[in-house]
Amino acid sequence: MTNLVKKTHRLMELLGHEEVPFGVYYADDKPDGYGPKAGEIFSREREAAGEIDWQHAFANFTCLLGSIWLARKKKKAAWISHEECGCMGGGYFSGMYGPYLDMNVLYVSTGVPGTPMEGEHYLPSPESMRMFMDDCALPLGKGKYCILKPLDQFTDEEQALSVSFFARPEVLTGLHSLTGYAAGSHNAVVSPFGAGCTGIVAWPQVYALRGIECAVLGGFDVSARKFLKTDELSFSIPLALYRKMLDVMEESALTRHAWQGTRKKVLKSNRTWDEGSAGA
Predict the structure, then answer these.
(1) CA nearest 104: which of 62, 142, 54, 39?
(2) What letter would DSSP give residue 139?
């Protein structure tokens, strides 16, 4: 990972961006960082048997984006596991269990019939929610923990499956341009529906497994916006495509005249938010 990190710092320099992107990987050992406490274990079997204490589950909810938010601040790892899950959606979208729960389908769409739970109404029906959940399903058994941490903290033995930047529109402009250049496609950036963690963990892996070369623009989950900076989004790239981006960045638009004008807006944004010093 040493050369990858070195090239990443060069990309950050070109972008005028100072926060090291996070990598996603799986392992059997819990890292030093932030994750949920042990609590309800989500499974279709336990749900069908009425063994999940939903009051306890919702009272002890832990959003994976919240853990990532803390990890970003403290420069540590965020993680989730099946036994220490904190969120039925986060556990499913990170490949910690499957199949998905009926409660998740109802909660995100129209609510639970016969109860006060009106649902989030992010999708218009349980059927549309099931189609989404089926579409973004990940293979199980990659490791006990799904871990996200700054790319420069990876060891040579650890391999990131995808890389996620957290940035505002000016920096995203550069990443978007570079992605299309590296992929040689005008369809190289997609923005499918999903939770905050779906865009960071699930969708990049799903597209890579399908042989679709694209990055995922995320951060549009209404419930998870509190764990992102104002005006900030996520930009997540499967590792193979990210390597291509690093290989061509010096010949891309990021080293041309037009980008230098946009990069001035990156620095202006940094000053507006009192963040960063790149190129100052």
Answers:
(1) 54
(2) P
**Side-chain half-sphere of 168: how many Cα atoms within 13 Å?**
20
Sign of the dihedral through C-alpha 217, 224, 270, 24: negative
* Strand ranges for the chain from DSSP E: 22-27, 33-34, 77-81, 145-150, 162-167, 189-190, 215-218, 233-238
> Which residues are within 8 A (CB) of 213 and not within 5 positions of it... i.e. 6 or more apart?
183, 185, 188, 207, 238, 240, 241
Pairwise CA distance, residues 187 & 24, whole Å: 23
**Residue 274 phi, psi dihedral angles, 5° rounding:** 55, 50
Tokens of 140: 């199980």
Residues paired with residue 146 on neighbouring β-strands, in sequence order: 26, 80
Q: What is the CA radius of gyration of the chain?
A: 19
CA dihedral over 128, 131, 136, 138, signed as positive or negative: positive
Backbone angles phi, psi at 155, to 5 degrees: -85, 170
Q: What is the pLDDT of residues 204-253, one digit of tens each?
A: 999 999 999 999 999 999 999 999 999 999 999 999 999 999 999 999 99
CA of 83: how far to CAs of 49, 59, 77, 87, 190, in Å?
18, 16, 18, 11, 32
The DSSP string of 76-125 is: -EEEEESSS-S-HHHHHHTTSS-S--HHHHHHHTT--TTSS-----SSSS
- Give 257's pLDDT tier (boundaries 50, 70, 90): very high
Strand partners, 192: none
Taking every pair of Cα atoms in the chain, the longest distance, rounded to a whole number of angstroms, is: 63
Lowest mean pLDDT among 135-144, 153-162, 191-200, 265-274: 265-274
Greater pLDDT, 280 or 208: 208
